[in-house]
Amino acid sequence: MKQLTDCKGEPLPIFGKGIVTECDIVAGAVPFGSVWNLKVLMVADLSTGSDDIPVPIPGQFYLIRVAKTGVLLGRPISVYKGRKAGEAAHIEFLILKKGKGTQELCDLKKNDEVQLIGPTGNSFPAPQKTDRPCIVGGGIGVAPVAGFASTLEPKSYDFFASFKSGSYGLEYVDAAELKITTDDGSAGIHGMLPAALTAQTLKEKGYTVLYACGPTPMLAYVQKICMEAGVKSFLSMEKNMACGVGACLGCTITTTEGNKRCCKDGPVFKGEILQFEPPKNKPVFGSARGNDGKIAEFEPDLSVEVAGVRFENPVIAASGTFGYGSEYASVFDVNGLGGICSKGLTLQARHGNTGTRLVETPSGLINSIGLENPGIEHFIEHELPSMLELKPVTIANLSGSSIETYVEGAKLLEKTAVPMIELNISCPNVKAGGMGFGMDCELASTVTKAVREVTKKPLMVKLTPNAPDLIGVAMAVREAGADALSLVNTFQAMSIDLNTGRPVFDNIRAGFSGPAVKPIALRMVYDLVQAMNKLPESERIPVVGLGGISCWQDAVEFLMAGASAIQVGTATFSNPNTMLEIIRGLKDYMKQKGFKTISEFRGIAQ
Fold it and tell me: Is 0.85 topped by the overall pTM?
């Protein structure tokens, strides 16, 4: 089948399969291992079955993802080099390891399979015979312009490469003059691009056209000096994207000619039409960063306080996911946690729900456990003593089927040494009580007040995201005596058996948790903290955030949204070390940013 082309005769992107021929660390990139060279042989068109695989043009890119991946979207990676290889196409990429998607690409081995959409986008227009070209690459943006340079006559252009530290990606460059700048002075000229290239330089060198790719601030600078010097420019832009073929409109950029799609109308644009907006927000740093921009050596204090109770760190094992702490003691050091919430406790022992209890989804877990537990008296006699021997703060999660059972359970816990009670009015997996109390402001207030009257212990009320008026419920329980709030519990969900055509769970509906709920849970925590901040400071109570937290970055987001601490649940099932990794990541982040305490960045997103 013949390869499809557009009206200009340029190949249209295809959905293809590639085989990795090589994946190695790029020498010269700093830090070592931050940039990788990925070579792929694109062997099949999965969309049409064509054996005519297109070869990319300099400036184009592919959406590329590992065939067996944990990410949703392919990552847009510019072509470093492309050539025909029989009926296949040999494509070379330089990849900066940044997040999960690029991490997966850098971990590829020979003969691994990848999926690609491309080649997509336009290309750098060839210079005219009378042109004197100047080519500029910044950081990983050196890849597409170096690939473009390799198609030009040797020594027919000058090349400027700018890096923070070290240098790489220049093996295909055969320039009349090659100048390298590094911010730390580790290679070439000490400084960034302006140290080597200015409007005056453009004039003195007699450049007539400039091609560039790099970080947005660098491109904005290049546009500025080109306009000052009267030099035409072609700039390769980068933007987050989903489809890569111009359908979703998620990668538009603003120009003097209206919105343009980076994937379809670009990524290469005439410099004069681009409209660069100044950064809306500046990077944040803590008190350990001096006026010289350097961060002094220090040891971060991860401790937090919730309702008068001190936690060594803000990471708490969520109720229902960690038993009573001792269950995971042989798997990892649970004493490194800030706190542990017990399994949901009821006055009498419960056998839980019948039938299927767990269904895995691609992005989370649906559970219908039904608060199975040995009862509060059994807990006090058998499980609580071992929980109290652990270093993390013990939190007893109290549930019930009626106000009376909540109250009687609270009376029993009041007589113990448990430091805090988490009042669970949000469990969606019980037919009586649980979430029923958390859906209505008046009921939530009534049960909270009743429990408050029989215990002096710090009372944290756990809220459901399914409430039609979450803020209203939160404020109602605050007024009824809650000392803190935790949210969100699981979202109502269901699953259907394709074989029987019937709901999987006996209760039909069950609780959904995991990474998929994190953005929604984060928004709810943000909204509640925002509402709390409108109250006089003396009337505010702390918020503990949870819902889909699976890495330290998630935890930092919740803290920046205003959470005083965070709870982790489902993520422990897939990786038991998740909470310890979050604590380490949080500590490293604070060191990197100069935050001595969590309070220095808590709520800064508000």
Answer: yes
